[in-house]
Amino acid sequence: MQTTSDSSGLIPVETALEALLSQAIAIIETETVDLNKALGRVLAQDIQSQIDVPPFNASAMDGYAINSADIGCDTPLAISQRIAAGQQPTAALAQGSVARIFTGAPLPEGADSVVMQEACSVTDDLVTLPAEIKIGQFVRLKGNHVRRGAVILKKGTKLGPAEIGLAASTGINNISVHRRLKVALLTTGDELIKPGLPLQPGQIYNANQYLLANMLTTLNCEVTSFGPVSDDAAAIKAALKQAAQCCDAIISSGGVSVGEEDHVKAVVEDLGKLDLWRIRIKPGKPLAFGNVLAKPFIGLPGNPVSSFVTFCLFARPFILKSQGLTKTTAKSFPVLADFEQSKPDSRREYKRVSLLTNEAGEMMARPYGSQDSATLMSTSNSDGLLCVPEGVTFERGEILSFMPYSELLG
């Protein structure tokens, strides 16, 4: 891979993202919710286990609980009791006997090992043990997984099914979480109409409204939609004022480029401040960031793919940090490029790509169809974004960084 210099004056991606995140302040208001309503929420405080897990020495197999003193015994041993999951042993295990035991059941006092049933020979009520037994085998010791009082989930963790299950396994049913982030969504453009209505000449359907609202909902935000707002400075100003009064952050699409009908940038500067504008990225150069009446504002480009890509790369981590999350960076993975680039681009490009496997079993990324910033088909039918650094040329088979949508959309 070869690199060339650039003097475009556009803001580098890392600089822009660092500036956004430096101004993302986590909401401090919290609420207590039941575990059944905790999916996708962000922990407001550490969670400590209320119990040892397991809470007792338990069998990890269906089989026979034994006392290790009986290992190597050639004489069949009597079955002195039967213990199923949820039952208590009827007595301590006497040496010279075994207890029939099932997965998850507590070991009786005196037992320290479990032999799986397939390894034993059983005749009537007598069990012959195998020749080789390891002391302590197939026993889940009390507190071996989690100790009482241990921190099992840290503040700032996003709660998924596994985290909720972990909390439940330690006896916790209510947890403190940050309240949901309230986001105002503005779509702008005289040409936009609601899907379902007949198109008139010059009109298009307002895809960005549905695209961005659902991306915000996926991030567990409370979304208030404004729009479509006409390409009129007064209308945009009124909508932004209303948005700033009811929400924690504002996201818009359209109106931030350099056209005569692009009024959003000027209105934001009138009502607040614009800190960033024009990023060294493709698609999505007109991305803007600032504040409206002291509320954070992110202005996304109007082209649907540009809006999609810049939301994933900039709005998403800003929102996650504002929600109180400690991890905001999407994971990326090295893949091989199934194409070449002979001419360098002055902007960093995020290509929509599909993954395939070559003859050697290596993962390769192939650009999906048209990379036009207005073609949403390329986001729906591809697997993720491939980062092509600015100012480089490369041959097919070069290693590039790939971000799957599973990382970017949740």
Outline the structure in words.
By secondary structure, this protein is α/β, with parallel strands linked by helices. It folds into 3 domains: 259 residues, Molybdenum Cofactor Biosythetic Enzyme, Chain A (3-Layer(aba) Sandwich); 44 residues, Molybdopterin biosynthesis moea protein, domain 2 (Alpha-Beta Complex), CATH 3.90.105; 83 residues, Molybdopterin biosynthesis moeA protein, domain 3, CATH 2.170.190. It contains 8 helices and 28 strands. The longest helix has 19 residues. The protein is elongated. The two termini are 32 Å apart.
Quick overview:
It contains 8 helices and 28 strands. The chain has 410 residues and is an alpha/beta fold. Strands 8-5-7-6-10-9 form a 6-stranded mixed sheet, with no helix packed on it. A 6-stranded mixed sheet has the order 17-14-18-22-21-19, sandwiched between helices.
